[in-house]
Amino acid sequence: MKLEKLSTTVVGSFPLENTEENFLKTIDDQINIGIDFPCYGQLISMVDQFLDPLVDENVGLKKEEGKYIISDSFKIPKEPIALKYGKSMLNYLNEKPYLKSMIKGTKACLTGPFTLASEIILTQDVAKGLKPRIFKEPRAIMVDWLVNKLAEMMGQIGKVYNDMGIDIISMDEPILGLLVGRRIMFHSKDFIIRTLNTAISGIEKVSSIHVCGNLSPNLRDLLLETNVNVLDHEFQTNARNFDIFEREHFQNSEKYLAFGAVKTKINKVKDAKINEYIEDIPTIKRTIQKAINLYGKENLLIKPDCGFMPLKDAFGEKIAYEITLKKLNNMVLAVNSLK
Length: 339
Hints:
13 helices; alpha/beta; TIM Barrel; three-stranded mixed sheet; 339 residues
């Protein structure tokens, strides 16, 4: 699938309570604002979204006091899990054909195997001989076969979403920014590439990977060597990423850059008005034009830096969601002025 120049989408999370009404509201609001590829609103943690259903399968992963713990008996379920989000979005759009007619396609979110593994603690039998690094205790991210299993599981889910007809399937892997710097922790470069390819192997339409934070040249080169179609990153909070990519990285490579055009990490300022947190249209237009000049309009997908869920803790649900919608609205208007 070829993406139209400067198509718009979102990363995924929204600052609303996890209810069915809010889930559908995020879809409605994105479409009415003019987002080309709306994603169902992720209203729970991207880790819990997949690990909680995995715990319910009784396959060697348990949850105690909010922590995930894995044993050496772990195996992935025979059937794909956590499919209700994509199914609910597609069912809703099929029931509302007028909404479906307003978009170019749909997007769904996965969570990458390395990020999932980084949140799983090892039992003593699996952790034998491993010393804690980065984390207080040995984690599944340190064990190749566990990461592989999680990649296979996400590959199954991605295939089902692909077969359902979802157009962009994005994998969140924020831990990669920590894992791959000047050196690579725990694994080899080839292992990480193979594992990411396994996780997106069932996606025949458009696969995407979101890594937030500052990127290293090593991570950029690694991601460019994967089979992933869209590289999705922050540029407003992490302006150094402007210097990481070049137009040549996307020419003749069947890859796109998902460019973060508005900030999603915001510090609350005492007595500030809501509009003081919102980039105006000329400002967003300038930052997108900068990306066009650097990388080429034909290589860009436009979206916010990251997800909006953290705004809820800082501002409360009502104001956080108002900020979210105003940012998305201005982003779409800025893009439309450049098409």
